[in-house]
Each structure stands twice: as structure tokens, then as C-alpha cells.
Amino acid sequence: MQRVALADFTTLKVGGTAELWEVEDETGLKEATEAPHKVIGGGSNLLVSDAGVTERVIRLGRSYNDVRSFEGQRDVWLGAATPLPGLVRRAQRAGLSGLEGLLGVPAVLGGAIAMNAGTRFGEMSDTLQEVELFVDGALERLPADALAFSYRHAELPEGGIVTRARLRFTESTPEAVQTRMATVDAARSGQPKVKSAGCAFKNPAGDSAGRIIDAAGLKGMRRGDAMVSFEHGNFILNLGAATAADVMELVTAVRHELAKVGADLELEWRLWGF
Ligand code: FAD
Ligand code: EPU
Questions:
Q1: CB 117 within 8 A of CB 111
Q2: Domain-terminating residue out of 137, 160, 187
Q3: Claim to verify: residue 70 and residue 161 sit in the same structural domain
Q4: CATH number at residue 10
Q5: For residue 1, what pLDDT band results from cuts at 50, 70 and 90?
Q6: Mean pLDDT of 39-63
Q7: Which ligand is nearest to the CA of 201?
Q8: Which of 8, 68, 109, 174 counts the most CB atoms within 10 A of its CB?
């Protein structure tokens, strides 16, 4: 266990301190979960308060990060700390289709499952067959359909930590997968490259939160170093020295302005410590 600044573990680069428990096995999970806790993946969908969190923050260590090639294997168990970008790339090289819709999502596998990350070209639940979870002090396996996936949502058992997952790919060719990845990449070309936590709000049915924020004229709105991106209205950026308070004030101000045009958007980010 060590005390860390959570800003260093999130893509938005804001957030105060917490006890970080990096675990490598079931014994570690048992010990770490003996007190109130949270679990962090790639930290790419989190807004952590400047005060940090009082709970322990559990992070799956190297033994849950599978970087091996799975050439020739359509059905594969992978650790939940495996970074998605490398996984998407390895599947492409092996000519295995199923994950290419997730190109550009800076998650780890466990976080992508917990959020059912995706784009309109596919989501995490498309390939997921089974998960291994640490819940109530023990490991158990659940079929994917027990998680009742929907848009950016999975019904994980209360306090459950995804430790491994079994994915099933469709056989294709590296070239065909690459072609589909190019389409996904093109669809993301309007997204900013500056520090963010991806889209701040979920899309309402049949519309885009980015379009709504744009149409309301809120691009460039700013609190401290937190700013609504000019490139894509649903991205809130940390221009350098933003605090969590700046980001939260901006979210509140955006919502206030949206209310004036009758729009009410739900946050996609998970809030910690607010
Ligand atoms: P974290 O942010 O660390 O955690 C998110 C939630 O998952 C938390 O509640 C956490 O407790 C829980 N969690 C994490 N790991 C586990 C685990 N092992 N077991 C149980 N619960 C766990 N998202 C999309 O869906 N589509 C996109 O196109 C997309 N593009 C993005 C682009 C950028 C530049 C950025 C910064 C983010 C983007 N996101 C996108 C958002 C983000 O990548 C996803 O929400 C992703 O699923 C978060 O995964 P993570 O590993 O970073 O999880
Ligand atoms: N639009 C605007 N102005 C903007 C942004 C978008 O008018 O500032 C318009 C676009 O022109 C387009 C429509 O809104 O007509 C949709 O935009 P886009 O294609 O960028 O998709 P999105 O709905 O804004 C969703 C996901 C992204 C994902 C992309 C690519 C949500 C909340 N967002 O964005 O996911 O990468 O599709 O498929 O579902 C995330 O969840 O963090 C995320 C980045």
C-alpha cells in the first residue's frame, strides 16, 4: 500500500490522494477488500475530487496484464488490467475481429467491461463471453449475459471486481480488421487530443450530447483551466492546471446553461469523492 495522488492515475489529471492497493492475486484481493474500497482501471472515465477519497483504491497489478499474442485462438481468457489499445492492436494482427470498434478507448479491460465501453461500431459486450469476479471475498465466474449490458452500463454485482474475462473473436484477416479500424479512426478524428476523460455526458436517445452542447453555444466555456473543447462539445479538457473543483464548476455551469434550452444530460463520468 502507498499513498498516491490520484491525478497521476487518471487521464484528466486531477484528483487528490488515496491509499493505493496494487494487488497481484486472490490473497491480495482478500486483504485489500477488508476495508471500504474502490477499484480503478485506466482512470479514463473518472473525475476524482481534489480531496481524494477516503476508501482504499484497488488496482490490479502486472499479473492481471496479459500482453501475450493470441494468434490462432478465437476464445481467450485475459487479465482485467490488460490495456485495451494493445489488445485491439494484437487482435487485428492476429486477424481476429470483435474489438476494433473500441479503437481509441484508453481503458483497461476491467474498466471497459464495467462501463461497457464502445462506439457506434461496437461495444465491449459484443465479444465478452464470461467474467471472473472477486466478490464477497471469493472468485466466481459469471456468463456475460448475467451482466445485463446496455449503453455504457453493466450490472456488476455490488462491490464486484472483474479480474479476468473470456472474449470470443470472429475469424477475419488482419487486412479486413485494419480496414474497419480505419473507419473507426476516421469517426474519432473530431475528438480532441488534450487531457480529458472522454465524453463527459451520455448521449440521450437519438441525439448526441456533443451536438446539443455545441448548439447551445457552450464551446470554449471555461472555469480555471477546465474548458469545453472547441473540437467536440462533449469533451471537457484540462488545459494544464485545472483542479477537480474547476471541472465540477464547469459541469454545473454547462448543465445550468443547458437547462435554459430544456436539455438535461446525464454524466457518463464516474465521480469519486464528491
Ligand atoms: P476507470 O475510469 O478506471 O473506471 C471506470 C469505472 O469502472 C469505475 O466505476 C471503476 O470503479 C470501474 N472499474 C474499473 N476497473 C474495474 C474492475 N476491474 N472491476 C470492476 N469495476 C471496475 N468510452 C467509450 O465508451 N467510448 C469511447 O469512444 C471513449 N473514448 C474515450 C476517449 C478518451 C480520450 C478518453 C480519455 C476516454 C474515452 N472513453 C470512451 C471513456 C473511458 O475510456 C471508458 O469509460 C472506459 O471504459 C473506462 O475504463 P478504465 O479502465 O479507464 O476505467
Ligand atoms: N456534433 C456536433 N458538435 C460537436 C460534436 C458533435 O455537432 O461538438 C455532431 C456531429 O457532427 C455528429 C454528431 O454530433 O453529427 C455525433 O458526433 P460524434 O460522431 O462525434 O459522436 P458522439 O455521439 O458525440 C459518440 C460517443 C464517443 C465515441 C464516438 C465515436 C457518447 C457519449 N459518445 O460520440 O464515446 O467515441 O461516438 O463513435 O456515446 C465516450 O463515451 O467517452 C466517447 C468518447
A1: yes
A2: 187
A3: yes
A4: 3.30.43.10
A5: confident
A6: 98
A7: 2
A8: 109
Buried b (16+ CB within 10 A) or exposed e, 64-81: bbbeeebeeeeebebbbb
Instruction: Give the active site residue among 152, 168, 180, 222.
Output: 152
**Which residue segment(s) compose the domain that 55 sits in?**
3-62
Mean pLDDT of the chain: 97
Residue with cell 465521480: 271
pLDDT in tens, 178-221: 999 999 999 999 999 999 999 999 999 999 999 999 999 999 99
Q: For 66, phi and psi rounded to 5 degrees?
A: -95, 110
| Domain-terminating residue out of 18, 35, 62 | 62
Rounded to two decimals, what is the model's pTM? 0.98
Direct distance between the N- and C-terminal alpha carbons of the chain, in angstroms, rounded to an integer:
23
Taking Cα atoms as reference points, which of 253, 251, 256 lies closest to residue 268? 251
Look-up of cell digits 472474449 = 167
Distance of CA 263 to the CA centre of its chain: 25
Q: Kindly state if the Cβ of 102 falls inside 6 Å of ligand 1.
A: no
**Co-location of 206 and 106 in the same domain:** no
Task: Please answer whether residues 6 and 17 qualify as being in contact, where contact means their C-beta atoms are separated by less than 8 angstroms.
Answer: yes
Distance 268 CA to ligand 2 centre (A): 13
What pLDDT does residue 257 have?
A: 98
